[in-house]
Each structure stands twice: as C-alpha cells, then as structure tokens.
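Render this sequence as a predicted structure.
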Amino acid sequence: MHHVTVSRNSSGGLRHGWTTGACATAATTAAYTALLTGEFPDPVQIDLPHDKHPAFALARESLTRGAATVGIVKDAGDDPDVTHGALVSARVSHGAPGSGVAFRAGEGVGTVTKPGLPLAVGEPAINPVPRRLMTEHVAAVAARHGGSGDVLIEVSVDNGAELARRTWNPRLGILGGLSILGTTGVVVPYSCSSWIDSIRRGVDVARAVGHTHVAGCTGSTSEKAVQQLYGLPEDALLDMGDFAGAVLKYLRRHPVPRLTVAGGIGKLAKLADGHLDLHSARSQVSFPALAGLVRGAGGSAELAAGVLAANTALDALQQCAAAGLPLGDLVAAGARDTALGVLQGAPVEVDVVVIDRAGTIVGRAPAPS
C-alpha cells in the first residue's frame, strides 16, 4: 500500500475518493456517448447511490469508426489505496443486436480462475455492482442518443497487473490484474483516528436518543441486511467497517442493551478467530481455524480437508452448505464469543448476523428463538 498525502476538505474531514468501479462507469458513459454522437463529454457526470453525482475529467480519449476509448485517473481521496492515481480505461464497441451489455477484461484487469468469488470462473474481475452501474449508464446514454444499448465494454487499468501483485488477487485466483470494485462508488478514507472517533460518536448519539439496540456492520451490504431484519433507525447503525475492536471496547465503557454485529463470512471468520481489526491488510482468514470449526461440529475429514484448502471463506461456506453443515452459524457463534470476551461482562446482549455477497443471511448467533 502506498500512502497519499492527507489533505483536509473544507469541513475538516478526510477527503472521499472514487472507486475503480465509479471510474470505469464514468469512462464507459463518456465513451458510449462519443460512439453515438462523435463528441466526448468532458467532464462526464455519473449517478451513484446515495444521491451522489460526481463529474470526472477525461485523461485519455480516442474515437475510431467502431469503438471509443476513455481513460480516467482514479482519485482515491485520502485513502492509502493501491490504485490511487491509476488510469482506468473503458473501450466501448457496438455489440450484436440484442446482445445487451457484455464485459471483457482488458490489460491490467484480472480474470476469475477459482470458485468462491461473486463471479463465475472465466469472467472478467468486474464486480456485480460496477457491472450494474455500467449497464444502467449505457441504457441512459442509449435512451438519450438513440443507441441500441448493445455494447461490449473492455475495461483496462494501466500497470494493473503490477499493482495487483500488491493485493490479495493472486491468492484469490484473480489472475492478470486488478478487480474493478465498489458498492457505492465512494472510497471512504481509511483513517484509524477519524473512523474510530466517528464510531464513538455514533455510540454517543445512539445512547443520547435512547436507543436500546445498535448494529455494527462491516459494510453497506450487511447494513442493509440488518435494517431489513430489525428495522433499526439510521442513527442506531454504527459505521464499524473493519474496526470491530473499536465498537466493542467503546460499548464496554458506554453500554447499549443490545448489539448486533453483521458482516460477510470472511470478515466475521476473522472476528471468530480473535482478530479485532478486520482489514485485509492487517488480518487474514485462517482456513485451519475454519477447518477446526468443521471438525468440531462433526464434519467429515474430507470436508475439513476441503475447507483447509478453500480459496475464500465464501468457498468454504459453499462446500459446507453442500455437505449440510452450517458453517455460517459456527462462524457467527465464534464471532459472538470474541465479542463477549471483549465486552468483559458489560450489560450488552450480542447477536451476530453473517451474510454472503448478495446480502443473504447465511449464519446467526444466537439462533433466533
């Protein structure tokens, strides 16, 4: 990870940035517009979740008879992001009538070679939400300029194969480059002090307004799952991210009667293993620990061996599901034990919700009565 200079925005907070998925969406929008009209919109504006409408300057543009290419430099804001400053490009060409939107991995974008990821083996490593954003923007450009919406989008990242060696992609079986990522399009800057401070302020607010139930979620997908499950108001949702320890330690001193911890199987497997910082750069999923859970629950030696050799926690979950063993519940129980250990007897009831990438609940502890 290389570090970027921290610059304060006008309100004194850390500056947000834009994901590779947002950059690819902007590049696609400008390229398809040029393909249909002959003109590149510069800057190009896109629509992201939560009513954000950023504009991006074009760093590269080229138009031939059958294709348009746009490059956009990724600005990760104040996040020490490996892709900060990378040139993300999209080449858009006409597809066969009725083909819809198809994706291809260009130079520097990886291809999925192992199971257990939210994309099929052989697919370009462009995650589901960026795909949806790009597809929606293609439809909007087609409607505006009379296009068919049938396009092939080839996404590339300059120097992406080299950058990917500094990520977990090679180990996950994403070969040849980076993944195009992002669920909201916004990079929330990683800063221990400011993030942990915001967690503490979140607990303070919840206590002040009299909430008896709060939730610490690792990301927007788990937050949505918890909201659907319990109908918690916005100010009962703590922006936990990877800082499970910060939430638990602050609640130990400033208790709320009930805490729900929610996150993906990978992050919560780390919590179950005793890690309180769930960031990929600072803790890893222990497959021996997961295999131990499987053995302890009476799973076969063959299943335990499969889990030990799993590519991802999601892969392990799928293997266990096929064998009828509820790994999600076992991880939830382990994560709850870790949480209760940190709380040291503070008057806080804890339940844990484990989700998969789609936001489906795959584990609970304690089980709903």
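Summary. Residues 20-37 form the longest helix (18 residues). The domain at 192-365 is CATH 3.40.1050 (Beta-carbonic Anhydrase; Chain A).
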